[in-house]
Design goal:
37% helix, 12% strand, 366 residues, binds fe (ii) ion, alpha/beta
Amino acid sequence: MDGQPPLSKSHPPKPHHPKPSRQSPAPETVSVRPLLLKPQWMNGLSERLLVSHYENNYGGALRRLNAIRARLAALDVANTPVFEINGLKREELIAAGSVVLHEIYFESLGGHGDNRPTGLTEPPAGLAEALERNFGSVTAWRAEFTAMAKALAGGSGWVILAWSDRLGRLVNQWAADHAHGLPGATPVLALDMYEHAYHLDFGAKAAAYVDQVMENLNWARIGARYRQAVGEVAGEGELFLPFGAPAQDEARISAEELKAALADSDGDRPFLLDLCLPRDLPRRTDMLAGASMHAPAALPDWIETLPRDRPIAVYCICGFQVSGTAVTELRRRGYDARALVGGITAWHAIGGATVPLDTSTYEATP
Ligand SMILES: [Fe+2]
């Protein structure tokens, strides 16, 4: 992340052809991945830390990556100084690496379904056997992995468990930054050792953070990622869907799709339904502009106020079963309802605008 772009050695070449308006087609937006962990139910990692990390650091990298890709797509490369190309391509690689590694980090944490992590789960059989083969035992693998992470205290970077086809084994890999990886290897587990990953909860006690992360690993998803890396399996997609989200694609809407639909003055602007359990109200500070906020349990009271001639986008905090259950029920009753994947947390991560929370439509005693 540090250092300056390499200096150009010469002026850019003069064009010998008409200046094109674009060098490449507009890039597709890299879309946000939802949180799969329940941030309020983790062992010793606070919701404040996890959500801040997800929205600001992961979301920041994602927003940066999309902005850089848009800038690159609009670049007339033949007439651009080499230092500008170098700088943009370097920043693109760093942002893309940060996006991918943060997604692996967050997806590797959390409990199973609606249960918080126990801290007692172990790698599934296939991955455990590979760890034994390559490191002597799961315990020996864990000792090296955590020692590498703790050795980064006071610095920054990642520790990555990766599968290397070329080496024919799993490796624990140090990464100095987001763009530092063993070529051709597939990360299976990534541990974020940047200070932003722990400072809110642990201050400078990086070793305590490392131990706490190991108590929150979701070995089912890590095992699935290992099987995908070695080409063993497909069809485990449900492991990577938020718990309680509707299974059908057409019953979900991504944050990017919702943002586009709200900005499209020609289309049917979605009606925004904000659902929140009473116990979760203290976790809320904001909402999407124009949304109506209701208590899920008061559905019989508010369902008739919903439009039948417009799409309805339903969101909750993270897009788990609160919005998922409601969308299933609304669709059963004939409404064109879709659940916002990742909830308002994913909306924050893409930089979506919000307004202060308005609970005037919320049922006081649902
Ligand atoms: Fe991070």
